[in-house]
Design a protein that fits this description.
alpha+beta, Diaminopimelate Epimerase, Chain A, domain 1, globular, 18% helix
């Protein structure tokens, strides 16, 4: 039996499993567990599982490992990170100025508000964006910028912006796509041959300089209600390519986030809430 806590950040839901005091399992085990638990009819239902593991680097309180609903492992998840910080804080395990080890490096969250001794609003330093083809796992010149480029889809050249926040993102700017279009195009672009390890895909509408709207197709999970790294990447692309402000509120299907691309440090900061849904046990059959 596997004990878990279901949590979400704006509907981007994950099943958290504390593995710090447990015998280590193989990646194959976690892949199979993620697929089984994430299934929304025969499992618990989630966008994936997140392991709360022992940090392997100094300065980090814990390590976050993410296995998507299809069993693939992801480097980073902004909504999942906020939820993990809440999990630690609500159980008396959080330390001020602590870092969390992720596949995108050590990231430093800050708890901005608490209600009833439980973390509510959390700000995360998402790190610096990168947009070279090499950082995005793209084919071609590894040092070339992909911040403003094109992809051929169905024999049509699409203008896109590609940004890595430790994981790859493709943004398509214009009127917000409906759910059907997002699912169809998202799946096509996720598996585009230009991306060696697949990619996340986002439709982005610039409503005003400080107001964006988005839909998400996440690599390994499909349509999701929010994507923290995607919001961070979209703000960077919107500032450079669309004349957006460096601080903006970003509407996603699950709610609203505030993103800031700090000029002095180059870091992107993301602020939003996280919620705990339930605790339970699951048996992998």
């Amino acid at each position: 039996m596997v004990s878990f806590t279901k949590m979400h950040g704006l509907g981007n839901d994950y099943l958290f499993i504390d593995v710090r005091a447990k015998d280590q399992k193989s990646d194959l085990y976690w892949r199979d567990l993620a697929i089984a638990m994430s299934e929304r009819h025969f499992g618990v239902g989630a966008d994936g599982i997140i392991l709360i593991d022992t940090a392997q680097v100094s300065g980090a309180l814990a390590k976050m490992r993410i296995f998507n609903a299809d069993g693939s492992e992801s480097e980073m998840c902004g909504n999942g990170l906020r939820a993990m910080v809440k999990w630690l804080y609500d159980r008396g395990q959080w330390q001020e100025n602590a870092g969390i080890e992720t596949g995108a490096g050590i990231l430093y969250p800050e708890i901005l508000s608490v209600e009833g001794h439980r973390a509510r609003r959390i700000r995360v330093n998402m790190g610096r964006p990168r947009w070279t083809r090499g950082a995005l796992g793209m084919t071609g010149d590894s040092q070339a910028s992909a911040l403003k480029t094109q992809l051929e889809v169905d024999h049509v050249m699409w203008p896109v912006a590609c940004v890595s926040m430790g994981n790859p993102h493709v943004m398509l700017f214009g009127p917000l796509w409906d759910v059907e279009t997002m699912a169809r195009r998202g799946s096509q672009i996720e598996n585009h041959p230009a991306f060696r390890h697949r990619t996340n895909v986002h439709s982005v509408e610039v409503v005003a300089a400080n107001h964006l709207r988005m839909r998400h197709w996440e690599r390994g999970a499909g349509l999701t209600l929010a994507c923290g790294t995607g919001v961070s990447a979209a703000l960077v692309a919107a500032v450079v390519n669309e004349g957006a402000a460096r601080i903006a509120r970003v509407e996603v299907p699950g709610g609203e986030l505030v993103a800031e691309w700090e000029e002095s440090s180059g870091n992107v900061y993301l602020t939003g809430t996280a919620q705990e849904v339930c605790e339970g046990e699951f048996e992998l059959r």
